[in-house]
């Protein structure tokens, strides 16, 4: 792992099990897990993240969400990978990109909406996030 990731990298992984001594067994052998870039993280109370079949969701706005059951939500550009990607290949190919201003504004707006759900103690689902985002856009509301 040390050859793939550096200390301080933000990663997405699946916790397979936690032993009584506190040792965590992680699953990262798929291209959908690994190093994260080109986005931001938001923390909300973990009880608000609703369990779903898929926690990595690509939204219609060209933005991807990772809804962690630990309460962390990663908002970013979508991952670009093929079915042949492995952790070694996909993590090493993750590079910071210049994100255009419209996408950056959308990422910040989505972060604002997710934080708002957290403050109002509301369950967080991709559908609810999109509904509020669409309404904010219709009304030309800003997060400022």
TrEMBL record:
Residues annotated as transmembrane: none
GO: which molecular function terms? Answer: RNA binding
Per the record, the domain of life is: Eukaryota
What is the predominant subcellular site recorded for this chain? nucleus
Q: Where in the cell is it found?
A: Nucleus
A Gene Ontology biological process annotation? Answer: exonucleolytic trimming to generate mature 3'-end of 5.8S rRNA from tricistronic rRNA transcript (SSU-rRNA, 5.8S rRNA, LSU-rRNA)
Instruction: List, alphabetically, the InterPro entries matched.
Output: Exosome_RNA_bind1/RRP40/RRP4, KH_dom_type_1, KH_dom_type_1_sf
Pfam families in the record: KH_6 (PF15985)
Question: GO CC annotations?
Answer: cytoplasmic exosome (RNase complex); nuclear exosome (RNase complex)
Q: Where is the K Homology domain?
A: 39-78
Q: What is this protein called?
A: K Homology domain-containing protein
Q: What is the lineage of its organism?
A: Eukaryota, Sar, Alveolata, Apicomplexa, Conoidasida
């Amino acid at each position: 792992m040390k050859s793939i990731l550096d200390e301080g990298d933000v990663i997405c992984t699946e916790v397979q099990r936690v032993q009584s001594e506190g040792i965590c067994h992680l699953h990262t052998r798929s291209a959908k897990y690994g190093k994260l870039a080109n986005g931001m993280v938001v923390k909300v109370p973990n009880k608000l993240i609703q369990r779903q079949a898929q926690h990595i969701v690509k939204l219609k706005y060209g933005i991807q969400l990772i809804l962690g059951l630990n309460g962390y939500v990663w908002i970013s550009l979508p991952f670009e990978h093929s079915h042949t990607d492995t952790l070694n290949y996909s993590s090493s190919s993750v590079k910071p990109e210049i994100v255009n201003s419209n996408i950056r504004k959308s990422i910040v707006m989505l972060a604002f909406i997710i934080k708002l759900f957290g403050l109002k103690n509301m369950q967080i689902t991709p559908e609810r996030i999109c509904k509020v985002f669409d309404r904010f856009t219709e009304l030309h509301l800003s997060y400022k």
